[in-house]
Amino acid sequence: MNATTTRVTSRDAARLTPAPPPGLLEDSPVFPIAAKRELANSQLRNNLARATETIRTKRAIRVAEVPRWEDLRTAAEAIKNATLRHLDDYLLQAEANLIKAGAHVHWARDAAQADQIVVDLVKASGVDEIVKVKSMVTQEIEMNEALEAAGVAAWETDLAELIVQLGHDRPSHVLVPAIHRNRAEIRDIFVEEMGRYGTPAPDGLTDDPAELTAAARQHLRDKFLRARTSTSGGNFLVADTGTLVVVESEGNGRMCVTLPDTLISVVGIEKVVPTFEDLEVFMQLLPRSSTGERMNPYTSMWTGVTPGDGPQNVHVVLVDNGRTKALADPIGRQALRCIRCSACMNVCPIYGHVGGHAYGSVYPGPIGIILTPQLRGMSAPVDRSLPYASTLCGACVDVCPVKINFPEVIVHLRHKAADLKKADRRPHMETLVMGVVGWLFGRESRYTWVTTASGLVGRVLKAGLDGRQKFFGWLPWPATRWSQARDLPIPASQPFRRQWKKRSSSPGRTPEGLSSHDRDTEVRP
């Protein structure tokens, strides 16, 4: 058999999934270390800059066409909030309508249980390979790795996910998983890897996007046609009809949810919406926010089983995996409103410099730093570091279609991280420094002594530096790591309290320290 017809199973594709360390992404370096590593990759920053600028520009144009865009955002926020308040009722309603339509419903409390359910269902269908619709929740639970361990090959069919899979890589963006790759890199991956797992790349393949797309289509065609089982996620699950909705841009999802005999949809419990009419709001917000398009190219909806049409064995796995815990947090639950549009990543200055791999999670960017610590907990160092991966600039709030208040949740999670550090009862430099500062500032006499001493230091330094230098340079240990990333101003020669006292005692001033003119024109709240 030639390469174009060779059937490759998981036993032949052991290298298709990267070999992560024990604990997988939870064992990733903390964000500051990972970010420093990624900052050294200038090609990554160039790739990110071009891609995110293009998406931001398209989004701005499409949003400007909608005269009541803010009303749509407010409506989406209200729908999501109302759904989360009564999530248990809507989930039970969705389950009843799914079963009524002929689907089988499974509940999974965590990733391990969800993976086992999927593995058992795939094994029961009698196959050793499946095709997949792009799905963040299946990456969250690491379903591909679980299937491979069970002897099942899971083929990604989304173009960007295919690039990531063939490149033995991890996604770095919710919407564009291969955003960190450029065309030349993708061409090399296709040439080197496609033939190992099925139809090879054509001879003379260039980095022209049309040629790359055609090569991917040819590579995937035989997988689509022979697949008897597929998996998908779900952008929305409509409670009052039991309808699942998948939106995508390439048509590969349509192939996966219509051709196979068995369809297994793995859906986070927060994806439910109460009524079919609610989709009207989200179908206007999602494509404009994510890809800068007026409408989604492919929207697939299915309600259970239709005899003789499409999959005849439909399963829906409803996954919790930390979502109930997040729901119990009045502030943190905002993250569950997310519809995975990725608009927050495209405007985030942090993400734009370090990319998605620095976050140690399948959810990078602003949504990742508020969602991942809630889903996984904050026991791992990488999860405790994520809330600090933000400048709190608020650009993510402005573009979020469901109005998540990212800074509020980030600060909330920082408080939790600080409380965990206190409960640790081990010495931490930050805790020690803040304890000393708190003691010094806790009494006026000590505070006065500190400001007087700092003024003396400032006068000595400015005299020695001839007034030219405004910041300290490198500081000795233990302040070395702090000074490597920040500039510490040289203290003022005269503390503010001394300046104010001198100003108050000058002629023409009232006892309160204001001139009569100042008092007459003072604006009081």
What does this structure look like?
The chain is α/β, with parallel strands linked by helices. The protein has four domains: 124 residues, no CATH class; 200 residues, 3-Layer(aba) Sandwich (Rossmann fold), CATH 3.40.50.10420; 69 residues, no CATH class; 91 residues, no CATH class. The chain has 24 helices and ten strands. The strands form two sheets. It has a six-stranded parallel β-sheet with strand order 1-10-7-4-2-3, with helices on both faces. The N and C termini lie far apart (84 Å).
Give a quick precis of the structure:
The chain has 525 residues and is of the alpha/beta class. The chain folds into four domains: 23-65 and 346-426, no CATH class; 69-154 and 228-341, NagB/RpiA/CoA transferase-like (Rossmann fold, 3-Layer(aba) Sandwich); 158-226, no CATH class; 429-519, no CATH class. The chain is 49% helix and 9% strand.
Strand order of the largest sheet: 1-10-7-4-2-3
Fraction of helical residues:
40-55%
The geometry reads as elongated
CATH superfamily of the largest domain: NagB/RpiA/CoA transferase-like
What's the tally of helices? Answer: 24
CATH class of the largest domain: Alpha Beta
Helix/strand class: alpha/beta
Number of strands: 10
What's the number of domains? 4
- What is the distance, rounded to the nearest whole angstrom, between the alpha carbons of the first and last residues? 84 Å
- The chain-level mean pLDDT equals 88
| Percent of sequence in beta strands | 5-15%
Largest sheet: 6 strands, parallel
Architecture of the largest domain, according to CATH? 3-Layer(aba) Sandwich
Radius of gyration: 28 Å
- Any low-confidence stretches, pLDDT <50, length ≥5? 1-23, 513-525
